[in-house]
Amino acid sequence: MEFIEANGYPIYFGEDEYQSLNKFIEEKNYSNIFILTDTNSNEYCLTKFLPFLATEKTIEIIEIEPGESEKNITTCVEIWNILTELGGDRKSLLINIGGGVITDIGGFVASTFKRGIDFIHIPTTLLAMVDASVGGKNGVDLGNLKNQIGVINVPKMVLINTEYLSTLPQNEMRSGFAEMVKHGLIHDQIYWTHFRNLQSAQHDYLPQLIHRSIEIKNEIVMQDPTENGIRKALNFGHTLGHAIESYFLENENKKTLLHGEAIAVGMVLESYISWQKGLLSAKEYLEIKNMITTVFETIVFEENDIQPILDLLIHDKKNEYGKIQFALLDGIGNIKINQEIENELIIKSFADYKS
Questions:
Q1: 3-state class of 8 per DSSP?
Q2: 4 strand-pairing partners
Q3: What interhelical angle do 238-250 and 259-276 show, nearest 10?
Q4: How far apart are CA 292 and CA 298, in angstroms?
Q5: What cofactor is this protein dependent on (predicted)?
Q6: What is the mean pLDDT of residues 147-172?
Q7: Do 196 and 289 reside in the same domain of the chain?
Q8: Is residue 133's pLDDT more than 90?
Q9: Under 8 Å CB-to-CB from 188, ≥6 apart: which residues?
Q10: What is the pLDDT of residue 47?
Q11: How many angstroms separate the CA atoms of 86 and 284, rounded?
């Protein structure tokens, strides 16, 4: 499968990826190599990777606990201290092997350690492959607020190996499918049709679907690397989705949601809003709602959940001048950014979701 040239770095697929990695490391002559991973990826994925890493450089493995709760500045401080204690310098390389938490925090740590060292992403979850592999967004949460602290800085390369997906439970796979569905809805109506039946994405065609999903995100990011315009299209489903994810993360009476689970709800809600604003037909909206609610478990919202979620919207990164900005569907395959939506319509979207 052909590599994708992203904004200043390549994304490799298949058997040639390790050859490209080893050649790159040899040419760069790094002082030492650090691998950041979590306990899950260390157990299930690192043993698949290390035999292919051909280098005589010193390799140190840094392991953190898994989960969104570790994606904070305290964890960064711990990693920075370990890098310092183990002799990390400006010529060190950090390889991030894991899901979106690892690539987000690893890219941020590398971008800020010694004012910036090189890093490489090896995503091991479907979500990380189709989302974190493109765009250069790295960062951490601020309390329960998603991705409030970070930088846009690209890796030296990304390696996509779908063999790692065999280690994932089904809910993690579905979490990744949510982002792939989003890419079809905002940019490619034909691609969207592949996900109207989830079974079509569970067989030999999955690597091609992943490749196309990454292509779509890359096409958008290349037009707008710093998210001043069309890149905001990628936030469809995320304005409400991130608020829901944050609310469930901080509320001990709620089950913590995977990112894709929250985004799936957000896409239904924001599709409803798109319909009500005359941007989406009723037929298109029901097509989207039926597909997503069939694949993803319905999330229960009580009456007293809605206002706290609305309160969290003010912290969304897309907001400008205190105004909440939505990216809405303008028909399937198209998007309209910078849409201001009144709270009454958002509340109606929750009522429709529950119906």
A1: coil
A2: 11
A3: 140
A4: 9
A5: Co(2+); NAD(+)
A6: 94
A7: yes
A8: no
A9: 212, 216, 333
A10: 92
A11: 55
112 and 192 assigned to the same domain: no
Indicate whether 55 and 92 sit together in one domain.
Answer: yes
Cα distance between residue 227 and residue 209, in whole Å? 25
b/e per residue, 209-244, with b = 16+ CB within 10 A? bbbbbbbbbbebbeeeeebeebbbbbbbbbbbbbbb
Tokens representing 62 are: 């840094």
Are residues 162 and 190 part of one domain?
no
Nearest Cα to Cα of residue 329 among 298, 290, 287? 287
Shared domain for 104 and 177, answered yes or no, is no
Same domain, 161 and 187: no
**pTM reported for the whole predicted model:** 0.93
Residue tagged 């390790």 (tokens): 18
Residue 175: the pLDDT is 93
| Residue 187 shares a structural domain with residue 322 | yes
DSSP SS3 for 336: strand
pLDDT of residue 126: 96
CB-CB contact of 241 with 266 (8 Å)? yes
Residue where one domain finishes, among candidates 142, 167, 192: 167
User: Residue 76 pLDDT more than 80?
Assistant: yes
Domain region containing 295: 170-354
Q: Which CATH number is 277's domain given?
A: 1.20.1090.10
Q: What is the pLDDT of residue 315?
A: 76
Is pLDDT of 16 > 90?
A: no
User: Is residue 332 located within the same domain as residue 206?
Assistant: yes
Asked whether residue 4 carries a pLDDT value surpassing 90, the answer given is yes
**How many domains are there within the chain?**
2
Please enumerate, as own/partner, the contacts of 330-334 that have beta carbons within 8 Å and a separation of 24 or more: 330/274, 330/279, 330/280, 331/279, 331/280, 331/281, 331/284, 332/184, 332/185, 332/189, 332/192, 332/280, 332/284, 332/287, 332/288, 333/184, 333/185, 333/186, 333/187, 333/188, 333/189, 333/192, 334/186
Q: Which residues pair with 119 in a beta bridge?
A: 94
Residue range 53-68: average pLDDT?
A: 95
